[in-house]
Amino acid sequence: MKKVIVAGAGIVGVSCAIWLQRAGFDVTIVDRAGPASGTSHGNAGVLAAGAVVPVTVPGLLRKAPGMLFDRNAPLFLRWSYLPKLLPFLRRYMSYATDAHVDLYGRAMGSLLHDSVDQHLALAKGTGAEKFIGLEDYCFGYQTRAMFEADAYAWSKRRAAGVVFEVVDGAEYHATDPIFGDAFEVVVRCKNHGRISDPGAYVKALADHFVDQGGTLKLATIEDLEMDGGDITALVTDQGEMRADTIVFALGPWSKAIAHKLGVTVPFESERGYHIELVNPSQMPKNPMMVASGKFVMTPMEGRIRLAGVIEFGGLDAGASRAPLDLMKREAAKLLPGITYDRIVEWMGHRPAPADSLPLIGANTAQGRSYSAFGHQHVGLTGGPKTGRIIADLVRGEAPNMDLSPFDPQKYAAKAR
After folding, report:
1. What are the tens digits of pLDDT across the range 98-152?
2. Burial of residue 319 (number of CB atoms within 10 Å: 0-12, 13-18, 19+)
3. Which of 69, 284, 298, 364 is packed most tightly, with the most Cβ within 10 A?
4. Residues 279-297 pLDDT 10s
5. How many domains does the chain have?
6. What are phi and psi of 52, to 5 degrees?
7. What is the mean pLDDT of the chain?
8. Do 368 and 247 contact (CB within 8 A), yes or no?
9. pLDDT (tens digit, 9 = 90+) per residue, 231-244?
10. Quick one: which of 320, 340, 351, 134 has its CA closest to 251?
11. What is the domain extent for residue 379?
12. Taking Cα atoms as reference points, which of 5, 34, 49, 23 lies closest to residue 382?
């Protein structure tokens, strides 16, 4: 039986492992800390099928400096990291064009449009089904002018086939009263969903993988053995690991390994934050993107999670206070009548390629290794389908979609 190693135990890695296992491979997951120990634990929990507009839209370069100095804006920077960030930032901002927004929308639309169905298929028979909800994903605007200022993004979503309904804030309040009169306009995105506990969900999937005969190994990958430009083994703190095929799904920790494989993707860690209001006196009905703060408020098991914002500061520095304080101020403003037992704080990392497109596919023509990382804000949303695509590719079948925007070899070709 062909042996496959999946490096990484977040939602993308676990999805790859389950679909490879179902395809008949002998699969081992290797991870330094275990399932859902990073971003897959701390994300907003939304199955954001309509996430087809990148952060890098036209006009971002003009707006970004002002946002960095505005304590209420959702963009943060650790200034000591700026010298290291600048080369990436130049590449990142070069994609803030209408043409790239359209390319991104087509590519990500093909990956994300059926995300709810993909999660249901992945979770079927695993015990993880109970965490999947089918609620609308809503966007709340404090004023109609703020909604109208966002017309560009909504026109792109509509063009990509995203189905949504624009309702008056008072109308929305009648069905979800927790926000009171905070929003004049609410956009309800249809065909979306929610994971009520992302960490528990991924752990349940991983438990099923092990129950079905898969192997989960806790080890830190320290290096790669290479021969003629292709990988032959993982070097870990537990010894060498060999397989016929190795899939890299290490999320924000993928850069060094990708570059060693010749996949010289311009790549950064995008730091994300959440706070949780534990045991709240009232819960929202649907996940709500608070448009002014670019964070999502999601009902979860026994808590309300506020997750989002963007900070560039690398993988090594500790959490900053400013993003957490912003979300606390917003929570107090949006939910003035809610009581809760305590607040939990968290900071994690999102994998951010300069063009915002994940890498999904073979790293070399020989197909000894595959990439499955770089999903930025939509790893939870796109993880199951990414896993299915990787399983198809490893068994020699071409998925029925254009994978060229995600091809790791587009970076390998540039390096040569």
Report:
1. 999 999 999 999 999 999 999 999 999 999 999 999 999 999 999 999 999 999 9
2. middle
3. 298
4. 999 999 999 999 887 889 9
5. 1
6. -115, 15
7. 93
8. no
9. 989 999 999 999 99
10. 351
11. 3-415
12. 49
Residue 118 parent element (H or E): helix 115-123
What phi and psi values does residue 76 have, to the nearest 5 degrees? -130, 155
Q: How far is CA 39 from the centre of its chain?
A: 8
Among 202-216, 242-256, 264-278, which range has the highest average pLDDT?
202-216
d(CA 351, CA 39): 9
Nearest C-alpha neighbor of 190 from the set 222, 167, 224: 167
Closest CA to 326 of 314, 308, 338: 308
- Are 310 and 342 in contact by the 8 Å Cβ rule? The answer is no
Of 353, 360, 375, nearest to 47 by C-alpha is 375
DSSP letter at 142 equals S
Residue 227 half-sphere exposure, CB side, CA atoms within 13 Å?
5
The encoded tokens of residue 177 equal 């009263």
Kindly list the distances between the CA atom of residue 333 and the CA atoms of 71, 178, 244, 324, 413, in Å, as whole numbers in the listed order: 15, 12, 54, 14, 50
Backbone φ and ψ for 274, nearest 5 degrees, come out as: -145, 155
Return the CATH number at 201. Answer: 3.50.50.60
Q: Crossing angle for the helix pair 115-123 and 379-394, nearest 10 degrees? A: 70
